[in-house]
Design brief:
Keywords: Membrane, Transmembrane, Transmembrane helix. The chain is α+β, with helices and mostly antiparallel strands and about 160 residues long. The chain has two domains: about 35 residues; about 90 residues, Beta Barrel (OB fold (Dihydrolipoamide Acetyltransferase, E2P)), CATH 2.40.50. Strands 3-2-1-4-5 form a five-stranded antiparallel beta sheet. The longest helix is centred in the N-terminal third of the chain and has 38 residues.
Amino acid sequence: MWYWIIVGGILVIVIAGYTVVFMIARKRQKAFDAQYLANKERHEVFVLNKRRLRERGQSGITKFIPFPTYQVVGRVTVGQTMKGVQMNRVQNVTFRTTKEEYDKIQVNHKYRMDIMGNYIGSVVSEVQSKRAQRSAKMKEETAQTKPKRRFLRRGGNS
């Protein structure tokens, strides 16, 4: 009888602890989402490298336990207008992202992404280079204009 009371008490404590951790994580996620939506920008990023690391966090329990993080190194053109002068600069930036977005991204491709600071929120679309667009258009035109050849058999017309 006492055995079931102890097991039930431990089960109640574990469920209560899980609920508290879940509520705290949800509150942090809502705060992050609000900040992300307020500051996100859409940029074209040429992906140079991507890697999966195990890093320790900066506060709380994450200081002691390494968690997997997904990082993408990309080349971004950043523009700014100061006193009527448009200034552009290309720089390499290391972004963090989620596993789903990390799996979508391929190295040496250009993507249009929603970015806030150094965090990739989502990959909107892949951007094709002008050379790839021209070659696709040329292939399409040659396929339409090229006459179809008919081969005859050696034995004669049949």
